[in-house]
UniProtKB/TrEMBL annotation:
It is found in: Cytoplasm. It catalyses: chorismate = prephenate; prephenate + H(+) = 3-phenylpyruvate + CO2 + H2O. Its EC number is 4.2.1.51, 5.4.99.5. Keywords: Amino-acid biosynthesis, Aromatic amino acid biosynthesis, Cytoplasm, Isomerase, Lyase, Multifunctional enzyme, Phenylalanine biosynthesis. The keyword Amino-acid biosynthesis applies. Residues 100-276 form the Prephenate dehydratase domain. Catalyzes the Claisen rearrangement of chorismate to prephenate and the decarboxylation/dehydration of prephenate to phenylpyruvate. Its main location: cytoplasm. Residues 5-100 form the Chorismate mutase domain. It comes from Cellvibrio fibrivorans. This is Bifunctional chorismate mutase/prephenate dehydratase. One of its GO terms (molecular function) is chorismate mutase activity.
Length: 369
């Protein structure tokens, strides 16, 4: 028997094995989907006809994803395994009731990418042109959830998102962290050796400043409303390029001529999931609050002391001027834990006694993906 024949037989045996495994995977996914449908039927049977059923449970999905990562033995990474389960859950949930999600658009933005990362590709994601529009759509009940950016590891917080929480009754139901990779892209009519202008969002231009200084020091840098808008502008411009994410390149038929050009390799953005529901404990949670304080000596120390005394991990503290009175400030605080935990509940009562006003924005699962 020749070597070629031996290799062919080995490949055939392996392919047959893969086919058998695929058949079993398909059967198990169908069984899971049927079980998800039964869950929906149980929920419907135990609620009044006019009651609103919560098909999507953020805490339950976070627990499933964490278990998938804990059980993983490789060779796929834990994150890749969780992504696969994310899509299976998204498809199963769509059988019950497809989720509608509003995000800060237009199409092709990192916020759309974050929306699909969190809810899966079976969700119905709808772009809106401003953060306050996303809030309004969720408040009106036109969509189930919204996705908005809240902070970037390089450029800091998105103040417009924080400001919208001050006048809204919406809750934070989850978070998603997205590694941000910027790419230089051109259209099919671009003369690559003659690029004289580069379009992108102002933050993306700032995050790629050193790379642009080194490679295109004389090109005009033009800030536009979004990276997707930058990508859209390239059609018909022979001397222009854009900085955007890979999703924008796919959506608008562009070619990436340089990838991952961001100056900080760990550049990432955190997005918040906003909705109307309070989320039960998942086991690994975060809480966000907004606190109003008078601008007086020791105010911040007075506010944060209970967290320090009870060894509660603060993950973010931001200050914004209040809209309600002169020389009054509000503090946006994120910390580890869930408000239903006795310790966290006690600390919230103590903090509330020390401030002018305290508003719970939400307790929610810490980002898994």
């Amino acid at each position: 028997m020749s070597t070629d024949q031996t290799e062919a037989e080995k490949l055939l045996a392996l392919r047959n094995k893969i086919d058998a495994i695929d058949e079993e995977i398909g059967r198990l996914i169908s069984a899971r989907a049927e079980c998800a449908q039964e869950v929906a039927d149980v929920k419907k049977a135990n609620l009044p006809e006019d009651a609103k059923i919560l098909f999507y449970r953020p805490e339950r999905e976070a627990q499933v994803l964490r278990k998938a990562m804990e059980r993983n033995k490789g060779p796929l990474s834990d994150e890749e395994m969780a992504r696969l389960f994310r899509e299976i859950m998204s498809a199963c949930l769509a059988l019950e009731n497809p989720i509608k999600v509003a995000y800060l658009g237009p199409e092709g933005t990192f916020t759309q990418q974050a929306s699909l990362k969190h809810f899966g590709h079976s969700a119905v994601v709808l772009p809106f042109s401003a953060i306050d529009e996303v809030f309004r759509e969720v408040e009106a009940g036109a969509v189930n959830y919204g996705v908005v950016p809240v902070e970037n590891s390089t450029e800091g917080v998105v103040n417009h998102t924080l400001d919208n929480f001050m006048g809204s009754n919406l809750k934070i139901c989850g978070e998603v962290e997205l590694r941000i990779h910027h790419n230089l892209m051109v259209s099919d009519v671009t003369s690559v050796n003659s690029i004289t202008r580069i379009y992108s969002h102002s933050q993306s231009l700032a995050q790629c400043r050193k790379w642009l200084d080194a490679h295109y020091p004389n090109a005009e840098r033009i800030a536009v409303s979004s990276n997707a808008e930058a990508a859209k502008r390239l059609k018909g411009e022979w001397n222009a390029a854009a900085i955007a994410g890979s999703m924008a390149a796919e959506l608008y038929g562009l070619k990436m001529i340089a990838e991952k050009i961001e100056d900080q390799p760990d550049n990432s953005t955190r997005f918040l999931i906003i909705g109307k529901q309070a989320v039960p404990q998942s086991g690994v949670d975060k809480t966000s609050i907004v606190v109003a304080m008078r601008n007086e000596p020791g105010a911040l120390h007075k506010l944060l002391e209970p967290f320090h005394r009870h060894n509660i991990d603060l993950t973010r503290v931001e200050t914004r001027p209040s809209r309600t009175g002169a020389w009054t400030y509000v503090f946006f605080i994120d910390f580890a834990g869930h408000v239903d935990e006795p310790l966290i509940s006690d600390v919230m009562k103590e903090v509330a006694s020390r401030c002018a006003d305290l508003k719970l924005l939400g307790s929610y699962p810490k980002a898994v993906l």
